[in-house]
Amino acid sequence: MKIGIVGLGLIGGSLGLDFRRLGHQVFGVARRLETCTQAIAAGAVDQATTTLASLNTVEVVMVCTPIAMIEPTVKEIAPHLAADAVITDVGSVKGAIAAAASQHWPRFVGGHPMAGKTEVGLAAAEAHLFRDRAYVITPLPQTPADAVETVQTLATDLGARVFTCDPTVHDRAVAWISHLPVMVSSSLIQACLHEPDEQVRYLAQQFASSGFRDTSRVGGGNPELGMMMARYNQAEVLRSLQTYREELDHLIHQLQEKDWAAIEHTLAENQAARPSFL
Ligand code: NAP
């Protein structure tokens, strides 16, 4: 299959590596010529240019740009594609994208491979990034079934666990396990930075080990991606943060009341529940 990838960063580059490995022909589009050269050298694409019009012969286009650029990219590329081509994206938010993009291209199928790393950019791209990870596909009721099937097949071939749901349901679910953790982790780092005693702050930085590494990873990652999650999934991020704040208030109250039994009970409940998420 001829596959076009727009945006040759972490996700676009990783998809390119896998699709080439699977025998597809991959055509890349990047903003800068330098990225095109690097993507070819890295084996992420067969060829690459800086113009969307170069994708006029591909059967599937995967838009892997930052969230804000997905809809404008779909709009810009639409006049160049064959009528039966499928466009999909990899954006971490779906509600704000799916309906708008489908207006430009009815054979648009929203998608979200749930895999990431702290580092971004083409240099961080790797093969097998999506293996055993969830890949969510979010068609609208009017999305043609064969277009949905094409994207489902590609995601399955990556070794991902494929789920299909409504874009708004996707946004609500990922708010809990992806967007809220970014906000919480970001607040954690900020709270530590606000320690007023310089010596304590310095020592905390020296003592930090695996616990802080795990809990600060997503809040210390790509700032643009975190902001886009907040901006484009604002309602669900707010909803989850408010529930989280209630949990914090509850915990503060238990601490003030020295209700150690209640705290232990909650921690035991968490220990039992955590594997159901991972
Ligand atoms: P990234 O590594 O920063 O890659 C984004 C790429 O898009 C860069 O190569 C950038 O080009 C390119 N780009 C930006 N504007 C463009 C434009 N107008 N036209 C063409 N290319 C453009 O980011 P990423 O992590 O791969 O994220 C890309 C998408 O994947 C986002 O929509 C994000 O929501 C989604 N996603 C990310 C993760 C994650 O954890 N990182 C997970 C799942 C989904 P330059 O190289 O020139 O800067």
Bound heterogens, unique: NADP nicotinamide-adenine-dinucleotide phosphate
The helix/strand order is EHEHEEHEHEEHEHHHHHH
Strand proportion:
5-15%
**CATH uppermost class of the largest domain:** Alpha Beta
Number of domains in the coordinates? 2
Unreliable sequence segments = none
Tell me which oligomeric state these chains represent: single chain
Distance from first to last alpha carbon: 33 Å
Determine the CATH superfamily of the largest domain: NAD(P)-binding Rossmann-like Domain
Average residue-wise pLDDT: 97
Number of helices: 11
The name of the CATH architecture of the largest domain is 3-Layer(aba) Sandwich
Structural class: alpha/beta
Count of distinct strands: 8
Rounded to an integer, what's the Rg over CA atoms?
Answer: 21 Å
Largest sheet: 8 strands, mixed
The CATH topology of the largest domain comes to: Rossmann fold
Main sheet: which strands, in order across?
3-2-1-4-5-6-7-8
Which range best describes the helical content: under 10%, 10-25%, 25-40%, 40-55%, 55-70% or over 70%? 40-55%
Report the principal-axis shape. globular
